[in-house]
Design a protein that fits this description.
Number of strands: 41
Number of helices: 1
Structural class: mainly beta
Strand content: over 45%
Largest sheet: 6 strands, antiparallel
Length: 537
Amino acid sequence: MKRYIFLVLIVTLLLGCEIKSPNGTKWEIDLNLPLMDEVYPIIDLVDDEYVFMDEADSTLYVETKGEINSREIDELKVELNSEFTLNSLNSDTPSYPGSIPFLSILPDYTIEVVAGKILSGDLVVVMNDIVTEVHDGTVTIVFNEVYDENGENFSPSIDINQFGSQEHRFELNNHVIKSSDDIMSGNTVNELTFTINIQDNMGSAESINYGSIDIRLSDMVYFESFLGNITGYYLDIEEDLANVDIEYPQNIDDVVVIEDARVELDLISDIGFETTFDGYITSYNDDGDSIRIEILDDNDNNFSIPSAEVLIDSGYPTTSPVTNQFVSDKQIDQLFSIMPTSLVIHSSRVYVQNPVNSYGFIALNHSVYGDYTGIIPFNFSLNDSSVPLITDDSSTALISKENQDIIEEHCQRAEIELAIENKLPIGGRIQIFIHNEPLGGTVDSLNLAMLQLKGESSEDEEEPVGYYVSSLSENTAFNIPIENFEVFLNDEVYIKFLMYADVTDEPILISGTVNDYIRISGALKLTVLMQQLGEAE
């Protein structure tokens, strides 16, 4: 009995083979060796730490957040020039009216008070005793617009029983200035009126001159809070609290122009005045480029932040914070023309605006604060087809020793059969490189023999050559010249893909689901010629 030994028995470990009709002692066998099966999901286009999906239409978008905080109000002050002098105090005139102006002369901002709690400040009274006779009296000054913690009029008293000059200082801490009991309908306090009352404790029959009196407020009065107007006042937004780090895949920053990005500001105001947000966003990329824009609404105006709700608690105002959202999308796309890796809100201020027909309320520790959100939908244009959109690290295929022997000694023809599924609305060209050493970020620097699969040239000879892939599934096969067979005479071969996406005339919307991907599958198809090696009884 004859027994034939064929090399085909060696390759039965392959995924598949087909033995064709024999020709004498020679047999043609088709072998199928899988090489690759790579999937590129759209979700991988941007670092998934920031990628989200709109449940309404499955659109992918990048969302990044940061905090925005103005500095807290730490000082509310009025600078005054308030003084009153009465040259002669006589016991036969028991009371004298007087007033001192209460008008801020600060150069940077001014305050008008309807009602306010004083944090610190002093009333200074100087008695210049010019009499020579023995005397004993009391001077009491009753203020009409200043009240103590018990709601009583501020009424400091001074005993006059010595010769010479005396200075007396009275603290105004925790006192309230108000124009009327109904503070919400009151007027601004432009002056503090008072009455100087004189009491002769000796009961003298004749009129006694108690000298002169000077009454003045300290140069600076600080408020804990007040109802009224404030002009020229602003709060700085704390710097760099809205940093956003964005990671893009390799090369995408050179080919993509993002459309329809927007910035949302969710701001909370404690301040009982309307405020205006005036600020900038600057985008930066790793190349050192930057673009700065002003944050404006669609009418090119600064965002106006409504006043916190002003309430009356135990006869004095308080505020209830109000949250408002503002969207800026008119110029935001400019920021992404450099594909930034960070966005920073900076050089920003919140300006306090006086109401037209009413008053506002403001207090220490009030501020404007909230969240910044940058939303970047996957709605973009591709502006350059010379930069690969996909540059995958090398894939690896294993070639058994038996298959290497078959390829080296018996291979007649070889081709690579590709199946490409493109589920994205982007066409493009794919190049495939196969090498017996790992392929790095570029393939042009390799000086060893390498197999490159490519299709026909495009009409534009300046654009890369590659196998064109539409949005539909496609299959094709590439013949391999015999001189390239040596690539497969190694235990491992390394495969690299480059995809050059088509330039888009208009923005395209990328939907992100598990079914949106590019898949590249391929197998090495060999035709080998086998020959009878011997026989046995």
